[in-house]
Amino acid sequence: MTALNQPFPRVATRFVEASDGVRLAVFERGNPSGPTVLCVHGFPDDHEVWDGVTSELASTMRVVTFDVRGSGASGHPNRIRDYRLDQLADDIGRVLDEVSPGRPVHLVGHDWGSVQAWHAATASAQRHHFASLTSISGPCLDHVPYWIRSRLAAGPAGWKDILGQWKSPIYMGFFQLPWIAPLACRLGLVDRTITLASRLETSSSDKATPSAAVSAHRARENRNALRIYTANLLPRLLRPQQRTTDLPVQVLAPRRDIFITPASQVDIGRWAADSRVHSVDGGHWIPLFNPTVVADLVRSFAREHAEETTESNGEPR
Q1: Cys bridge to 263: 96, 161, 202, 292, which one at CB 3.0-4.6 A?
Q2: Considering the entire predicted model, what is its pTM?
Q3: What are the residues facing 275 on neighbouring strands?
């Protein structure tokens, strides 16, 4: 475990082999005697997007991050089927079997990392791994069609919520275009768009700067992870399952997220009975630009549900 006063590990502290042989690069930092939190990133990021949050949590929690397949130092498989959510959720379980065997962790996901986290948290075979779930800017894909139906039935107010998501079909559809989407990543066009979007999400009164030195070319470097869109969007949206969980769940909904609107991620009561929603100030990349608010809510949620990570003999896990 990396000591608290040392820099972030830029070399994986360990590698975990996935069920299909893909190697997953895992990074660990923080208080080894504290509760464990696992943070899962989305596209086009890698584990470094969590560095600011890790800094905030390191004194009291053990923080584990990993590069999702297709990104960073992990393996970059070429087959689309290798990026299906069942496999990605299994990757999360494999990592936890290595870093926290037999001890449930607090799961935190952002963007596609949140989609993966929801998928894992709603799988009965994975339930033992988790004490809580914090979801940021990424609903469960299987829940989206049910949300659309409920908003259609709600009349004009619901229709407005659906229209507010008009950007999602555009960029998600684009990211599924063979040859063209990878080329846009390779040429740096996606990275430039992300930079522009981050500026648009930042209000004129903000002086927000990234809390971590993430790569300015991460879409180019992690373009293999584009396959997550093709592997999952249409199959899940066309044949959704009613995925529920008894885990405590909190959703952090950034008010200025231009990619995933708050309305599309906060209707979770039917899927998680023990749930709450926090409207937070920030844009889509809030873990990068406002890590303090993320860390504070993760820490307090973990403390509230500390009994979920207590061994039968009463000692903390």
Answers
A1: 161
A2: 0.92
A3: 249
List the 62-66 sheet strands across, edge first.
14-17, 23-30, 62-66, 36-40, 105-110, 130-136, 249-254, 275-280
Asked whether the predicted pLDDT for residue 66 surpasses 50, the reply is yes
CB burial of 39-77 (b: ≥16 within 10 Å; e: otherwise) equals: bbbbbbbbbbbbbbbbbbbbebbbbbbbbbbbbbbbbbb
What would the DSSP string read from start to end of 159-192? HHHHHTTTHHHHHHHHTTSTTHHHHHHHTTHHHH
The whole domain housing 256 covers 14-309
- The first and second tokens of residue 88, run together, are 């990605």
Q: What is the pLDDT of residues 237-256, one digit of tens each?
A: 999 999 999 999 999 999 99
Please enumerate in sequence order all residues whose Cβ is within 8 A of that of 156, keeping only pairs 6 or more positions apart, or say none: none
Planar angle of CA 7, 11, 16, nearest 5 degrees: 125
**What is each CA distance from 168 to 53, 163, 175, 202, in whole angstroms?**
26, 10, 11, 19
Q: Is residue 2 part of a domain?
A: no
Asked whether residue 315 is assigned to any structural domain, the reply reads no
Q: Look up residue 205 and give its DSSP letter.
A: T
Q: How far apart are CA 66 and CA 74, in angstroms?
A: 8
Number of domains in the chain: 1
Residue 148 lies in a domain: yes
Residue 178 falls inside a structural domain: yes
Q: CATH code at 176? A: 3.40.50.1820
Q: Which pLDDT score, from 0 to 100, does residue 204 have?
A: 45
Q: Which residue has the higher pLDDT, 5 or 14?
A: 14
Of 48, 13, 7, give the one whose Cα is nearest residue 27: 13
- Whether pLDDT at 205 is above 50: no
